[in-house]
Design a protein that fits this description.
The chain has eight helices and six strands; from the N terminus they run ααβββαααβααβαβ. β1 (about 50-60) and β2 (about 65-75) form a beta hairpin. It has a six-stranded mixed sheet with strand order 5-4-1-2-3-6, with helices on both faces. By secondary structure, it is α/β, with parallel strands linked by helices. It has helices at about 10-25, 35-45, 90-100, 110-115, 120-145, 190-195, 195-200, 235-240, and strands at about 50-60, 65-75, 75-90, 175-180, 210-215, 250.
Length: about 280
Amino acid sequence: MSWPRPKMLQRALPSYRLTQSRLATEVTDFHAVPEIAAAVQSFVMSREAVPGIYVYFDVGGGTVDGVAFNYLNSRGERRINFYSGKVEPLGVFAIGTALSKGTSAEIDAVTLENLLKSCAPSALAEFVQRIRRLVGYVIMTARQKDGRNWQEDALQSADYERKFISKLSTSHMRPLIAFMGGGGSKSGWYKNSIESTYKAFQHHNARAPPYKLVEVPRPKDFIVPKGSADEFIRFAISWGLSFLFGEGPDIGLPSQFDEAEKPRQWTPPRAFDYADSKDYC
């Protein structure tokens, strides 16, 4: 049985009040989970997940969601520390509708790619820049909160440790893994827009390693529904929500983490501070 979906909050409130009294007796596990958090959980609950810093971009129909997180696993005790997160109305349908000037036709990743081919580069420049700003905010905020030098420290392997004295080239840096999920992740335009942020915003000078965009890994125990393509990206959120409340990892929210304290600058031994010797009138 399908229920009509209210278009406005004011219309949803009367229905909520009617069913509120039954929640305590009929619903035993009811809690809100952000879609992007559920998608991340679908990755960390896999046995193949390696602790470290990751970025996740979910390209949906209406929005693009981005988060950066630190995945910790201490003897089976999993935890996700979300350092940053941002949502922008830059999804497939949102951009496709703007480019097609309000068409009511259904727009998916394939349709969007066809629309992009017929658009002038100047018309897409603003959308590309907005995506880059989202990427830049998510990654740079997380780097500032984590505090480590991401170019020199291995981010996705606790077993790898090496100290570098000379300056590294980008070809010798371990990349920052960025997962792409959602139906729009198949679009090459989104992929190029995210990847181009590194050079356009000069993230190399901000101690960030190059980005490596990959699909959300499919868990070995995930069974593809009959009649569906062999794609896990469309089921990542549902898979993450399938775990009972309490079975998943503990979560730290971005508001719980401040910027890491900056390391002290090196000063030569026996350095004299001339400012302390000045006479003030």
